């Protein structure tokens, strides 16, 4: 993996820009794109992509502006997901007094000014398939999504907090008028995942005009998506008191709960599924915190949508 200290020495610290943020300007006005890796410090793919991207953007940028960011450098140096608190839960209005919050606060202006924000993540456990989290498709750059080469998308109201506070980087970008996309690239032990993810990002930058069309070497990693598999997150469980999943139950992503089935217990009272659903991002019982999301509830089946119907058919 990229050695962050060396990266910061090689890449000049720019005046007026925080450490581990690099800003590049094209010769003419254009869109602002932010690419962030390492918001979870142990997710190495995004960090490696950031390092490779710096050289390409510096050389090839034609119009607009690109911000390239290591989200949580302290955690990345420690090789941990986070130090005190998950930096991808700190983008809302409720500030906590920890260094990770200070880091997010200095990054907020860069995401807030972005037309497109790509937040790069990867998994440390093998997973079947990469996916995108796209809280809202309502943006003029929505066509960029198909260039990322990932067909599976999670969207919907269930991604939001009950009070609408945008705690995640993608929701924060959306709240500020940009297209916010989280790329869950896949298992980081996969050999070509860095190249593949790099290719997705380069395609997106080309699509929005940052690079001259066809100025890059031929892409061969990511395919342009023709049909998307859209999973609607219709709700989520935010425990108010004492929530636990059933004894010993370790839910996995996309596990099915039937209508009326007990998902968990809140203060001893069963919480049942209101319809046939699937669970996403279920926590383990020992990680559940009151007021923080315990899991997301997905519709039972995905919708398959042609790329051209994407902005129209999904709210
Ligand atoms: Zn992550």
Mind explaining what this structure looks like?
This protein has helices spanning 4-10, 44-60, 73-78, 99-112, 144-147, 169-175, 193-207, 310-313, and strands at 21-25, 28-37, 63-70, 116-123, 131-133, 152-155, 179-187, 227-237, 243-244, 256-257, 262-266, 269-272, 277-280, 295-299, 303-306. With 315 residues, it is an alpha/beta fold. The chain has two domains: 4-225, Zn peptidases (Aminopeptidase, 3-Layer(aba) Sandwich); 232-302, RNA polymerase II/Efflux pump adaptor protein, barrel-sandwich hybrid domain (OB fold (Dihydrolipoamide Acetyltransferase, E2P)), CATH 2.40.50. Helix 5 (144-147) links the parallel strand 5 and strand 6 (152-155). Helix 2 (44-60) packs across helix 7 (193-207). The two termini are 38 Å apart. The relative contact order is 0.14. The mean pLDDT is 91. The structure holds zinc ion.
Main traits of this protein?
315 residues, binds zinc ion, three-stranded antiparallel β-sheet, OB fold (Dihydrolipoamide Acetyltransferase, E2P), 15 strands, Aminopeptidase, alpha/beta, single chain, twelve-stranded mixed β-sheet
């Amino acid at each position: 993996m990229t050695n962050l200290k060396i990266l910061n020495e090689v890449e000049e610290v720019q005046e007026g820009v925080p450490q581990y943020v690099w800003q590049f300007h094209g010769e003419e006005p254009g869109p602002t794109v932010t690419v962030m890796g390492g918001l979870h410090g142990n997710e190495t793919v995004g960090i490696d992509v950031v390092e490779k991207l710096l050289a390409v953007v510096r050389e090839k940028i034609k119009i607009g502006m690109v911000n390239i960011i290591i989200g949580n450098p302290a955690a990345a140096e420690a090789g941990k997901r986070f130090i005190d608190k998950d930096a991808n839960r700190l983008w809302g209005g409720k500030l906590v007094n920890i260094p990770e919050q200070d880091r997010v606060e200095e990054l907020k202006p860069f995401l807030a000014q972005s037309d497109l924000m790509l937040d790069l993540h990867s998994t440390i456990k093998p997973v079947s398939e990469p996916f995108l989290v796209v809280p809202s498709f309502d943006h003029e750059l929505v066509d960029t999504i198909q260039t990322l080469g990932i067909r599976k998308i999670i969207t919907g109201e269930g991604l939001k907090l009950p009070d609408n506070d945008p705690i995640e980087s993608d929701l924060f970008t959306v709240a500020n008028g940009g297209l916010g996309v989280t790329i869950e690239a896949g298992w980081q032990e996969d050999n070509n995942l860095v190249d593949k993810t790099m290719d997705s990002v380069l395609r997106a930058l080309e699509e929005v005009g940052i690079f001259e069309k066809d100025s890059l070497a031929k892409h061969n990693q990511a395919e342009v998506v023709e049909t998307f598999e859209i999973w609607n997150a219709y709700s989520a469980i935010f425990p108010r008191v004492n929530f636990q999943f059933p004894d010993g139950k370790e839910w996995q992503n996309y596990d099915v709960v039937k209508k009326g089935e007990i998902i968990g217990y809140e203060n001893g009272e069963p919480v049942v599924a209101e319809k046939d659903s699937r669970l996403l991002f279920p926590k383990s019982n020992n990680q559940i915190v009151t007021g923080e999301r315990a899991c997301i509830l997905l519709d039972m089946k995905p919708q398959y949508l042609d790329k051209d119907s994407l902005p129209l058919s999904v709210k």
